[in-house]
Design goal:
28% of the residues lie in helices and 27% in strands. The chain is flat and about 35 Å long. The protein has one domain (4-81). The protein has helices at 4-13, 68-81; strands at residues 27-33, 39-45, 51-56, 65-67. It has a four-stranded mixed beta sheet. By secondary structure, the chain is an alpha+beta fold. The chain contains two helices and four strands, in the order H-E-E-E-E-H. Strand 2 (39-45) and strand 3 form a beta hairpin. The structure holds zinc ion. Residues 19, 21-22, 24, 45, 47-48, 50 line the site of zinc ion.
């Protein structure tokens, strides 16, 4: 996984760091909380659109997070802006 070092930085520091593909700083992450108390993590680069999805255990405290419901609402909004079918 090319995002491995970034994943470790998010867990330890809450910082994504440079994209491992294009070296851009235009990166971000979001933990998504599942109803069972566990969660997953999405990491992406806003410049080259490379991304990684990680199924993981309970997200660390003080990290950006949203519920699955919020994540689905954001996905619908992104698709609406791109005029994609919902
Ligand atoms: Zn990139």
């Amino acid at each position: 996984m090319k995002w491995r070092d970034n994943l470790l930085r998010i867990v330890n520091e809450g910082i994504v760091g440079k994209c491992p593909f294009c070296k851009s700083d235009n990166t971000d992450y979001m933990y998504i909380d599942h109803e069972n108390g566990r969660g997953c993590l999405d990491i992406w680069c806003g410049s080259c659109n490379e991304n990684e999805h990680v199924d993981c255990a309970t997200p660390p405290a003080n990290r950006k997070r949203m519920t699955m419901k919020q994540a689905l609402a954001e996905e619908r909004e992104r698709n609406r802006k791109k005029n994609l079918a919902i």
